[in-house]
UniProtKB/TrEMBL annotation:
Active site residues of this protein: H146
GO biological process: one example: response to oxidative stress
Domain Plant heme peroxidase family profile: 101-400
Provenance organism: Spinacia oleracea (Spinach)
Protein name: Peroxidase
Catalysed reaction equations from the record: 2 a phenolic donor + H2O2 = 2 a phenolic radical donor + 2 H2O
Cystine residue pairs: C111-C191, C148-C153, C197-C396, C274-C304
Signal peptide positions (record): 1-26
Site feature Transition state stabilizer, where: R142
UniProt-annotated binding residues for Ca(2+) 1: D147, V150, G152, D154, S156, E165
SUPFAM superfamilies named in the record: Heme-dependent peroxidases
Protein's job: Removal of H(2)O(2), oxidation of toxic reductants, biosynthesis and degradation of lignin, suberization, auxin catabolism, response to environmental stresses such as wounding, pathogen attack and oxidative stress. These functions might be dependent on each isozyme/isoform in each plant tissue.
């Protein structure tokens, strides 16, 4: 009987021991199963490995941690398989790489404070200047054209020096430099080393076109600044060219005849000095224009006395008093009525290759705006420097 009691006690003890071992193994297996499931879920559901993880080995900050080593592993940061929290973006992040090529909104996110819209900031300053002085419209239009037709739209016209483009004869009366410098100061304060002077000219010109009654088009940005500015390279179409010669000059820059006509139509704003047209007013000169509206001729003669050489005597290019400071199609109506000022302007309304365009633009303000918008986008993209070409000047008037 004593032996039977002992046998029962031993049997009960074995049952308890085996039960304990089973529970321990089951718990170990469950923990491994969860760990593997968690790892597989991260690898497959996300579609990519965690940052710093490559293939069958994990790399963290230069350390390679293998599997199956008999050596005690060094510390390995845990892989977080949960979704990252939705944190607000840090507005002071390192600037992303500069895109290449022209595009609308090029500077978005490129300033140290990525919330800054530098183009809008510059536009606000241009608006203030236009309200103070609407004549900044023809000034910037002229600057843009004179810059783009020499080495492309690279702000080479802004460079100071004894023999730079700024000193060439056709550019001596160009103005608007102070506004461009002021805009560059703003750009450097809020977005240092990012915004080019060439883009500042384009942004400002587009804005004054809009405020002056012209089309509102989307200006592309992404230009770099040029490294060359020589007065000897300035070869702009003269107001004394024939229509055929002017067509050839624009064709050399890849503009069509229609685009030439619409760009010359920007003479609907601005003034001209008497020296460029006074010979059309008086008989006995080779440039005398007998077809000019006689009323206009009589009105201009007191302003431009015969033989005057003063640069202070000038008149509006658009002789419509209600439209002289407005960028519209009035210019084309005026030249059809033989009231053009510059020789090339009036010739557009008399030449068989251009008169049809003049008539179309005179009839339709909408057509004028649409064509001018397209021509300005093309002009402002003329032979631009992008990507690694040129530089971003710190000061617009000198090369870095």
């Amino acid at each position: 009987m004593g032996f039977g009691i002992l046998l029962k006690a031993i049997t009960l003890w074995l049952v308890l021991v085996l039960s304990s071992v089973g529970k321990s193994n089951a718990g170990f297996g469950l923990r491994l199963g969860l760990s593997k499931a968690s790892h597989n879920r991260k690898s497959h559901e996300s579609g990519h490995a965690p940052k710093g993880y490559h293939g069958k080995s994990r790399h963290f900050k230069g350390r390679r941690v293998g599997h199956g080593s008999n050596k005690p592993p060094s510390f390995v940061p845990p892989i977080n398989t949960s979704s990252p929290p939705n944190l607000p973006p840090n507005k002071y992040t390192s600037s992303p790489s500069r895109p290449s090529g022209l595009q609308v909104g090029f500077y978005k996110g490129l300033c140290p404070n990525r919330l800054v819209d530098i183009e809008s900031t510059l536009i606000t300053k241009v608006q203030q200047q236009f309200r103070q002085d609407p004549t900044i419209l023809p000034a910037l239009l002229r600057m843009q054209f004179h810059d783009c037709f020499v080495h492309g739209c690279d702000a080479s016209i802004l460079i100071n020096g004894p023999s730079t483009e700024k000193t060439a004869g056709p550019n001596l009366s160009v103005r608007g430099y102070a506004l461009i410098d002021a805009l560059k100061d703003i750009a450097e304060e809020q977005c240092p080393g990012v915004v080019s002077c060439a883009d500042i000219i384009a942004i400002a010109t587009k804005q004054v076109i809009k405020m002056g009654g012209g089309p509102d088009y989307s200006v592309q940005t992404g230009r770099n600044d040029g490294l060359v500015s020589r007065a000897q390279d300035v070869n702009l179409p003269s107001p004394f060219l024939t229509v055929s010669e002017s067509i050839s000059a624009f064709d050399a820059k890849r503009f069509t005849t229609e685009e030439m006509v619409i760009l010359l139509g920007c003479h609907t704003v601005g003034i001209s000095q008497c020296t460029f047209f006074q010979d059309r007013l008086y008989q006995g000169n080779t440039q005398f224009d007998p077809k000019m509206d006689p009323i206009l001729r009589k009105q201009l003669q007191p302003t431009c006395p015969k033989g005057t050489t003063s640069n202070n005597n000038s008149t509006f290019l658009d002789q419509n008093p209600q439209s002289s400071n407005k960028l519209d199609n009035s210019f084309f109506v005026q030249i059809l009525n033989q009231r053009g000022i510059l020789p090339i302007d009036q010739a557009l309304a008399r030449h068989p290759q251009t008169i049809a365009f003049v008539q179309q633009f005179a009839r339709s303000a909408t057509l004028f705006n649409n064509k001018l918008a397209s021509a300005m986008v093309k002009l402002q993209a003329l032979d631009v420097l992008t990507g690694n070409q040129g530089q971003i000047r710190k000061t617009c008037s000198r090369i870095n």
